User: What shape does this take?
Amino acid sequence: MAPEAQSAPLRRSLAQDAMNLPNLLTLGRIAAIPFFVWLLDSPSPRRCFWASIVFTAAAITDMLDGYLARKLGVVSLLGKFLDPLADKLIVMAALVWMVPMGRIAAWIVVLLLAREISVTGLRSVAATEGVIISAGQEGKTKTALQMIGIVALLLGYPYHLTYWGFDCGTVQMVHVGRTLVYLSLLFSIASAAQYVRLFGTAVAAKEHRQVES
Assistant: This one.
Protein backbone atom coordinates (compact mmCIF):
# COMPACT_ATOMS: atom_id res chain seq x y z
CA MET A 1 0.00 0.00 0.00
CA ALA A 2 1.28 3.46 -0.91
CA PRO A 3 2.38 5.77 1.95
CA GLU A 4 -0.38 8.22 1.02
CA ALA A 5 -3.04 5.52 1.37
CA GLN A 6 -1.64 4.47 4.75
CA SER A 7 -1.49 8.01 6.12
CA ALA A 8 -5.05 8.93 5.08
CA PRO A 9 -6.78 6.46 7.47
CA LEU A 10 -4.33 7.52 10.19
CA ARG A 11 -5.29 11.18 9.74
CA ARG A 12 -8.99 10.27 9.81
CA SER A 13 -8.44 8.21 12.97
CA LEU A 14 -6.61 11.07 14.71
CA ALA A 15 -9.33 13.52 13.71
CA GLN A 16 -12.01 11.20 15.10
CA ASP A 17 -10.03 10.70 18.32
CA ALA A 18 -9.69 14.46 18.75
CA MET A 19 -13.48 14.80 18.81
CA ASN A 20 -14.21 12.34 21.62
CA LEU A 21 -15.14 13.86 25.00
CA PRO A 22 -11.96 12.98 26.98
CA ASN A 23 -9.68 14.40 24.30
CA LEU A 24 -11.85 17.51 23.96
CA LEU A 25 -11.37 18.08 27.71
CA THR A 26 -7.62 17.65 27.27
CA LEU A 27 -7.54 20.06 24.33
CA GLY A 28 -9.57 22.49 26.43
CA ARG A 29 -6.83 22.41 29.09
CA ILE A 30 -4.23 23.26 26.49
CA ALA A 31 -6.40 26.03 25.01
CA ALA A 32 -6.82 27.55 28.51
CA ILE A 33 -3.07 28.02 29.02
CA PRO A 34 -2.81 31.39 27.15
CA PHE A 35 -5.70 32.76 29.25
CA PHE A 36 -4.06 31.39 32.40
CA VAL A 37 -0.75 33.06 31.52
CA TRP A 38 -2.54 36.34 30.68
CA LEU A 39 -4.09 36.37 34.16
CA LEU A 40 -0.65 35.99 35.74
CA ASP A 41 1.02 38.55 33.49
CA SER A 42 -0.36 41.46 35.54
CA PRO A 43 -0.90 39.87 38.96
CA SER A 44 -3.49 41.18 41.38
CA PRO A 45 -5.54 39.39 44.08
CA ARG A 46 -8.52 39.10 41.71
CA ARG A 47 -6.53 37.91 38.68
CA CYS A 48 -4.52 35.45 40.76
CA PHE A 49 -7.75 34.09 42.24
CA TRP A 50 -9.11 33.44 38.75
CA ALA A 51 -5.78 31.94 37.69
CA SER A 52 -6.08 29.49 40.60
CA ILE A 53 -9.62 28.62 39.44
CA VAL A 54 -8.36 27.90 35.91
CA PHE A 55 -5.52 25.77 37.27
CA THR A 56 -7.85 23.87 39.62
CA ALA A 57 -10.29 23.22 36.76
CA ALA A 58 -7.38 21.90 34.67
CA ALA A 59 -6.33 19.57 37.50
CA ILE A 60 -9.89 18.25 37.85
CA THR A 61 -10.28 17.62 34.12
CA ASP A 62 -6.86 15.91 34.16
CA MET A 63 -8.37 13.27 36.44
CA LEU A 64 -11.73 13.28 34.67
CA ASP A 65 -10.59 12.74 31.09
CA GLY A 66 -8.65 9.57 31.93
CA TYR A 67 -11.62 8.17 33.83
CA LEU A 68 -14.01 9.01 30.98
CA ALA A 69 -11.69 7.51 28.37
CA ARG A 70 -11.68 4.18 30.24
CA LYS A 71 -15.38 4.35 31.12
CA LEU A 72 -16.46 5.13 27.55
CA GLY A 73 -13.95 2.77 25.97
CA VAL A 74 -12.32 5.52 23.90
CA VAL A 75 -8.70 5.25 25.10
CA SER A 76 -6.66 6.46 22.13
CA LEU A 77 -3.07 7.02 21.07
CA LEU A 78 -3.78 10.74 20.72
CA GLY A 79 -5.14 10.86 24.26
CA LYS A 80 -2.11 9.05 25.65
CA PHE A 81 0.08 11.72 24.05
CA LEU A 82 -2.01 14.81 24.82
CA ASP A 83 -3.02 14.04 28.42
CA PRO A 84 0.46 14.12 30.04
CA LEU A 85 1.49 16.92 27.67
CA ALA A 86 -1.39 19.18 28.77
CA ASP A 87 -0.62 18.48 32.42
CA LYS A 88 3.07 19.34 32.06
CA LEU A 89 2.43 22.45 29.95
CA ILE A 90 0.16 24.17 32.47
CA VAL A 91 2.39 23.18 35.41
CA MET A 92 5.41 24.51 33.55
CA ALA A 93 3.60 27.76 32.70
CA ALA A 94 2.53 28.26 36.33
CA LEU A 95 5.99 27.62 37.78
CA VAL A 96 7.89 29.70 35.24
CA TRP A 97 5.52 32.69 35.50
CA MET A 98 5.70 32.69 39.30
CA VAL A 99 9.49 33.04 39.39
CA PRO A 100 9.53 36.75 38.42
CA MET A 101 6.53 37.23 40.72
CA GLY A 102 8.83 36.23 43.59
CA ARG A 103 6.62 33.36 44.72
CA ILE A 104 9.00 30.51 43.98
CA ALA A 105 12.78 30.26 43.58
CA ALA A 106 14.18 29.64 40.10
CA TRP A 107 16.35 26.74 41.26
CA ILE A 108 13.42 24.61 42.39
CA VAL A 109 11.61 25.25 39.11
CA VAL A 110 14.70 24.12 37.20
CA LEU A 111 14.94 20.94 39.31
CA LEU A 112 11.24 20.11 38.94
CA LEU A 113 11.23 20.65 35.18
CA ALA A 114 14.51 18.73 34.76
CA ARG A 115 12.95 15.82 36.63
CA GLU A 116 9.85 15.86 34.41
CA ILE A 117 11.91 15.96 31.20
CA SER A 118 14.23 13.19 32.42
CA VAL A 119 11.42 10.87 33.51
CA THR A 120 9.46 11.49 30.31
CA GLY A 121 12.55 10.64 28.26
CA LEU A 122 13.20 7.51 30.32
CA ARG A 123 9.63 6.29 29.92
CA SER A 124 9.79 6.96 26.17
CA VAL A 125 12.98 4.90 25.83
CA ALA A 126 11.41 2.16 27.95
CA ALA A 127 8.32 2.14 25.71
CA THR A 128 10.46 1.63 22.61
CA GLU A 129 11.92 -1.43 24.35
CA GLY A 130 8.45 -2.74 25.11
CA VAL A 131 8.74 -1.85 28.80
CA ILE A 132 5.83 0.03 30.40
CA ILE A 133 6.69 1.89 33.62
CA SER A 134 3.61 2.90 35.58
CA ALA A 135 3.59 5.76 38.08
CA GLY A 136 4.28 4.62 41.63
CA GLN A 137 2.92 5.99 44.90
CA GLU A 138 5.80 8.48 45.17
CA GLY A 139 4.91 9.95 41.78
CA LYS A 140 1.22 10.23 42.69
CA THR A 141 2.07 11.90 46.00
CA LYS A 142 4.40 14.29 44.17
CA THR A 143 1.66 15.26 41.77
CA ALA A 144 -0.90 15.86 44.54
CA LEU A 145 1.49 18.00 46.62
CA GLN A 146 2.61 19.92 43.54
CA MET A 147 -0.89 20.69 42.33
CA ILE A 148 -2.14 21.87 45.74
CA GLY A 149 1.08 23.81 46.29
CA ILE A 150 0.76 25.60 42.96
CA VAL A 151 -2.85 26.57 43.73
CA ALA A 152 -1.68 28.06 47.04
CA LEU A 153 1.14 29.91 45.27
CA LEU A 154 -1.29 31.24 42.69
CA LEU A 155 -3.50 32.63 45.43
CA GLY A 156 -0.29 34.05 46.83
CA TYR A 157 -1.68 36.75 49.11
CA PRO A 158 -2.45 36.83 52.86
CA TYR A 159 -5.99 35.67 53.63
CA HIS A 160 -7.79 36.20 56.90
CA LEU A 161 -9.72 33.02 57.66
CA THR A 162 -12.66 32.35 59.93
CA TYR A 163 -14.23 28.96 60.52
CA TRP A 164 -17.72 28.64 62.02
CA GLY A 165 -17.31 32.06 63.61
CA PHE A 166 -13.84 31.32 64.99
CA ASP A 167 -11.00 33.63 64.00
CA CYS A 168 -8.26 31.45 62.49
CA GLY A 169 -5.92 34.37 61.85
CA THR A 170 -4.11 35.34 58.68
CA VAL A 171 -2.68 32.63 56.44
CA GLN A 172 0.21 33.49 54.11
CA MET A 173 -0.74 31.37 51.09
CA VAL A 174 2.63 31.86 49.43
CA HIS A 175 4.34 30.19 52.41
CA VAL A 176 1.88 27.30 52.31
CA GLY A 177 2.49 26.88 48.58
CA ARG A 178 6.27 26.95 48.90
CA THR A 179 6.22 24.35 51.65
CA LEU A 180 4.08 21.98 49.59
CA VAL A 181 6.17 22.46 46.45
CA TYR A 182 9.38 21.85 48.43
CA LEU A 183 7.85 18.63 49.77
CA SER A 184 6.84 17.64 46.24
CA LEU A 185 10.50 18.00 45.21
CA LEU A 186 11.49 15.31 47.72
CA PHE A 187 8.89 12.95 46.29
CA SER A 188 9.98 13.95 42.77
CA ILE A 189 13.52 12.79 43.48
CA ALA A 190 12.27 9.59 45.16
CA SER A 191 9.95 8.76 42.26
CA ALA A 192 12.67 9.50 39.69
CA ALA A 193 14.97 7.05 41.49
CA GLN A 194 12.15 4.50 41.47
CA TYR A 195 11.66 4.95 37.71
CA VAL A 196 15.37 4.36 37.11
CA ARG A 197 15.30 1.23 39.29
CA LEU A 198 12.18 -0.15 37.58
CA PHE A 199 13.66 0.61 34.16
CA GLY A 200 16.89 -1.24 35.01
CA THR A 201 14.98 -4.22 36.42
CA ALA A 202 12.62 -4.44 33.44
CA VAL A 203 15.42 -4.18 30.86
CA ALA A 204 17.50 -6.80 32.70
CA ALA A 205 14.48 -9.14 32.82
CA LYS A 206 13.86 -8.64 29.10
CA GLU A 207 17.49 -9.38 28.23
CA HIS A 208 17.38 -12.49 30.43
CA ARG A 209 14.30 -13.77 28.60
CA GLN A 210 15.98 -13.15 25.24
CA VAL A 211 19.06 -15.09 26.32
CA GLU A 212 16.91 -18.02 27.50
CA SER A 213 14.94 -18.08 24.25
Q: What stands out?
A: Strands lie at 158-163, 166-172. The first helix runs from residue 3 to 18.
